[in-house]
Give the backbone structure.
Amino acid sequence: MSVCREKDRAYVNIALIVVNVLIFVFLETMGPTENAGFMVKWGAIYLPLVFSQGEYYRLFTAMFLHFGASHLVNNMLVLFILGERLEQAMGHVKYLIFYILSGLLANIASAYIQIQGVWGQAKVTAGASGAIFGVVGGLVYVVAVNRGRLDGLTNRQLGFMVLLTLYHGFSSKGVDNAAHIGGLITGFLLAVIMYRIPRDWRLRSK
């Protein structure tokens, strides 16, 4: 039995995807989105600017920037598939707050790791993957409290996706693994705070 609002479309998730695509198309008309310097100009994260110049807004703007078409397509496909389910389970307003907080906290986690010098010197980072990993972490919790299944989605499937994505990240260059892990943990914790099982579902489950 599904705990999603079956007749409720995931308007927020669709809007997030549209915004990401429109921003990418706009930037592509202005210059090369795979160029780090160009992306910094338009709001990507570069820690010397964040802390020395006080440009903290980059922790937010970087969530909507992508390095090339493949980066955008990969992120938006995952968001389209998983974001819809979390929005239907959580509700529109909560989902929007959840998504933004996941992305911000994932970028903060990435910044902290860079400051500690764990994974080398400061680098230019951007992308929606921190927020998307937050969605995955949120779904792990939501699925778990709904007896291991949500609208056909199981924690086993989510776990396999997480492991596969993390493996790809650690075996590839230029991937912000700290944002991925930070988003995953943040998303789970935010879901613990923000998600509540629908009352009618609890009653039917007794």
Q: What stands out?
A: Residues 11-205 form a domain with the Rhomboid-like fold fold (CATH 1.20.1540.10). The radius of gyration is 17 Å. The longest strand covers residues 149-150. DSSP finds ten helices and two strands in the chain.
